[in-house]
Design brief:
By secondary structure, this protein is an alpha/beta fold. The chain has 2 domains: 8-172, Spore Coat Polysaccharide Biosynthesis Protein SpsA, Chain A; 175-256. Helix content is 40%, strand content 25%. Strands 1, 2, 3, 4, 5, 6, 7, 8 and 11 form a 9-stranded mixed β-sheet that branches. The protein has a two-stranded antiparallel sheet with strand order 9-10. Helix 1 links the parallel strand 1 and strand 2 (33-40). Helix 5 packs parallel to helix 7 (226-256). The longest helix is centred in the C-terminal third of the chain and has 31 residues, at 226-256. The relative contact order is 0.12.
C-alpha cells in the first residue's frame, strides 16, 4: 500500500462482511490516511484478500452488532482521530481536503458528515434520505457508539461540528439487496424496541407503516425522485410494518411461554 508523503494522522476504520465487490473503491477513496484498518466479521468471500493491498491493517473479529464491532475497532486504532466508513461509502476529494483542514486545527471533538445517497444509480434528493447525516469523524478517546443494535450513533460529551462536504453513499445495489438489509434491520430494530419496553399491536403496526410512507413520499416530497422515490417510500413502510409485526410476534411468544 502506498500513502501520501505527509499522510494525515488519522485512522480510517471500515467494518465489513462479504463486501469483496465494493470495498476496493471505498479503500481507494481514503488513501490519504496514515492508518486504514479493515475490520472483517469473518467473510466467506474474498473481502480480506481484496482489502489487503489497499489497507494498512486487516483484522478479523466476531460480529455481535454494529455498535459493538465499531467500539472494538476504535480501541485498536493507532491515531487520535478516527474516521469510520461503511464499504458502500466513498470519501470525495473535496471531503478529504476538508478533513485535512479540520485535523490541522480541530475546534470540536467530532463532526457530522452529510451523505449523498444513491439508489439504482440515481442520486436521491428528496424523501427521508435528503437530510441524511452520520457522525463519523471524532477523537478516539471522546467517542463511543450507543449500545443499540441498529441505527447506532456516536455519543460525545461535547457538541459536534459539521463538515461542509459530503460522503457518497451507494446504499443498495439491487432491490434484493435492499430487502435483505431491511429484513435484518427490522429484526434488530424490533429487538431494540423490546429491550426499551415498547409494545406493539395492530394499530401500531399499521400506523408506523402508513406514517413512514406518507412522511417520505408526500411530506418530504419523495415523489420528486420518480419511481425510485416511490420504491424507497414503500420499502420504508415495509420496515415500519415488519419491525412492529416482529415485536408483536415476540410479545405473543413470550405470553405463551
Amino acid at each position: 500500500m502506498v500513502l501520501e508523503m505527509n499522510a494525515t494522522r488519522l485512522s480510517v476504520i471500515i467494518p465489513c462482511f462479504n463486501e469483496e465487490k465494493i470495498i476496493g473503491d471505498c479503500l481507494r477513496s481514503v488513501q490519504f490516511a496514515s492508518e486504514i484498518m479493515v475490520v472483517d466479521a469473518f467473510s466467506g468471500d474474498r473481502t480480506t484478500e481484496t482489502a489487503r493491498p489497499l489497507a494498512t491493517r486487516v483484522l478479523q473479529h466476531e460480529y455481535l452488532n454494529q455498535a459493538a464491532q465499531k467500539n472494538w475497532a476504535i480501541l485498536q486504532a493507532a491515531n487520535e482521530w478516527i474516521l469510520i466508513l461503511d464499504p458502500d461509502e466513498r470519501a470525495t476529494p473535496e471531503l478529504v481536503a476538508e478533513i485535512k483542514q479540520i485535523l490541522h486545527s480541530p475546534k470540536c471533538d467530532g463532526y457530522w458528515i452529510r451523505r449523498r445517497n444513491f439508489f439504482w444509480g440515481k442520486e436521491i434528493r428528496y424523501g427521508n434520505w435528503q437530510h441524511d447525516k452520520v457522525l463519523r469523524l471524532f477523537r478516539r478517546d471522546k467517542g463511543r457508539y450507543q449500545n443499540v443494535q441498529v441505527h447506532e450513533e456516536i455519543e460525545l460529551d461535547t457538541p459536534p461540528g459539521w463538515c461542509r462536504e459530503k460522503l457518497l453513499h451507494y446504499s443498495y445495489r439491487s432491490l434484493n439487496d435492499y430487502l435483505r438489509k431491511l429484513g435484518r434491520l427490522s429484526a434488530l430494530g424490533a429487538d431494540d424496541a423490546r429491550l426499551r419496553g415498547e409494545r406493539a399491536g395492530c394499530w401500531k403496526i399499521l400506523s408506523h407503516a402508513v406514517g413512514r410512507f406518507c412522511k417520505s413520499y408526500f411530506l418530504k416530497q419523495g415523489f420528486r425522485d420518480g419511481g425510485e422515490g416511490f420504491v424507497i417510500a414503500f420499502m420504508e413502510a415495509y420496515y415500519g410494518f415488519f419491525k412492529y409485526a416482529l415485536l408483536y410476534e415476540m410479545q405473543r411468544n413470550q405470553s405463551r411461554s
